[in-house]
Design a protein that fits this description.
Two copies of one chain form a homodimer.
Chain A: H1 4-13, E1 22-24, E2 31-33, E3 39-49, H2 60-78, E4 81-91, H3 98-113, E5 116-124, E6 128-138, E7 153-157, H4 162-170, H5 179-190, H6 196-202, E8 208-211, H7 216-227, E9 230-233, H8 242-247, H9 250-259, E10 266-270, E11 280-287, E12 291-294
Helix pairs in contact in A: 2-3, 2-6, 4-5
Chain lengths: ~300, ~300
């Protein structure tokens, strides 16, 4: 019986599905999970297509790592504690080196996020990766985009714009002479970090939260629309990395921080008295009204798959 | 701001996510679900790629319907009660007629399965549909492939081979003069039914269960391997529909029943004294040992994406 597909799945992806929540892992018709008592489940799914979401030159380990982190970032935005993930992998053909490398990147990302791989699907076709992630929060504590209030401070984790610079370097649209800075920026694009621990801390205090995948202005726009508020962003407050500032002029750095996607930092709103978590920056304010305002208009705003 | 992608999702897929378990539906970073107390969650994901899993001529409503039912069938095989589903849709381009038709088929399938659509993702790329389904069972009652015991009876729901005949008609490899029979067979391929209600009834009595997606022999092989038993199938006992028997010679009908996939019926094992559920047929027996035996060897066995 020709069972190469099953063999692939078995060889690379079985046996990782250990975890306190896992009742049944890979290998049956479905996985079975225990959700902690009193918790609600959060679930999200994200597809990355070669040539649309990532360059054909992106190495397989990074394709896997980014795909899983991008999905996990949605859990972080809800404040969810990680439970498990599933992978749907569509591959154009079986290449002997590709799958082991992809598998290594996926393993690292599942280990870093503590998401047990409990299921998936392998099919033949043009390269695309769909990752489904599951997490949980106490029943009343998950964050949404909808709770921002006039007077709240707009805050962001980490630094912005690095991923856009890293993508520009990978696409050979930007040359950075300092090899250490270039590496750092490319790594920020290829190996983003889902802010799961920060998200879990924020679920007790933030009024709204979203992860920055489409770009700061676009994602702030989603919060403003869902919350029915206006949001003002002060471009002089944007947290920019030393590597980014050393590599491009300030206006370009600010534009990437405002409109570049793929940073996977958390954007959230805090009521007046709540202290700012470590590593986070206040970049604006929530007002009554609607829409986004900023003292600076970058050339491209946000990311839309069908509009490109 | 170009937000055609968000608009597509909003227009067609929002507002369906009603359901007793849904705490937060489409439109945020993740959905939130309540899992019934004392239950464990079952989750499965399935990808269908145009040209691999379905013909390019398959109408969009049927692409959607089949994809959701194929995924829901995995829940049926676990004995799970339906909770929710997510859709990841990759589309080559925005066609004005395609998405409304796809959406209609998806809506019908979610209504028939009682799976609330709570999330998803729309991306640009070669047509592929990934459906993730969630269900739940009492903590100790989900079925697996692994519990079949020597002496158990091997049983199957419904009738087998119709979907393979329907696919052959669609692919113009088979001509059936009787239009009613042809329609019936094509519909069995294009609009399969996930046996969710039967699965829930079986979870109290079956020792093992799987859905028939790869073909009877292949899927029985999975049960035999997971359970560490031998399974014998008697080809004269296979349940064949009148439409199938009227359309092809008996050996072809039996071959399709044994090796054709896509039927999405349930294959399960019952201990000696448990009565056979209505609409099901005993087709073989579980023995000590390993592997599958059958009095008939069809030309092709099972389905493997990378082996085709």
């Amino acid at each position: 019986m020709p069972d190469s597909e099953f063999a692939l799945i078995r060889d690379y992806f079985m046996g990782w599905g250990e975890g306190p929540a896992v009742r049944l892992g890979i290998g049956d018709d479905a996985a079975a999970l225990s959700v902690p008592e009193g918790h609600v489940l959060q679930i999200s799914t994200d597809t990355a297509v070669e040539g649309v979401h990532f360059l054909p030159t992106l190495a397989p380990a990074e394709v896997a790592y980014r795909s899983l982190m991008a999905a996990a970032s949605d859990l972080a935005a809800m404040g969810a504690s990680p439970l498990a993930c599933l992978l749907s992998l569509t591959l154009p053909e079986v290449e002997s080196n590709w799958l082991p490398a992809f598998s290594r990147g996926l393993y690292e990302a599942t280990a870093h996020t503590e998401l047990s791989l409990v299921g998936g699907d392998t099919t033949r076709g043009p390269l695309s990766v769909t990752v489904t992630v599951l997490g949980s929060t106490p029943a009343t504590q998950f964050m949404t985009r909808a709770g921002a209030q006039p007077g709240d401070r707009l805050c962001v984790s980490g630094q912005l714009g690095d991923a856009a610079a890293g993508l520009a370097i990978s696409a050979k649209e930007l040359t950075v002479d300092d090899a250490r800075n270039a590496d750092l920026l490319v790594t920020r694009y290829e190996r983003p970090t889902a802010r799961l621990i920060l998200g879990q801390a924020l679920r007790e205090c933030a009024t709204a939260c979203i992860d920055i995948s489409d770009g700061l202005l676009a994602d702030a726009g989603h919060v403003a629309a869902a919350s029915g508020v206006a949001i003002h962003i002060d471009s002089t407050l944007l947290p920019l990395s030393e590597a980014l500032c050393a590599s491009v002029a300030l206006p370009q750095a600010q534009d990437w921080a405002l409109a570049g996607g793929d940073d996977y930092e958390l954007l959230f709103t805090l009521p007046g008295k709540v202290p700012l978590p470590e590593g986070c920056t206040e970049i604006g304010r929530v007002h009554a009204g609607g829409g986004i305002s900023c003292d600076r208009t970058p050339e491209c705003i946000g990311y839309d798959h069908f509009a490109r």
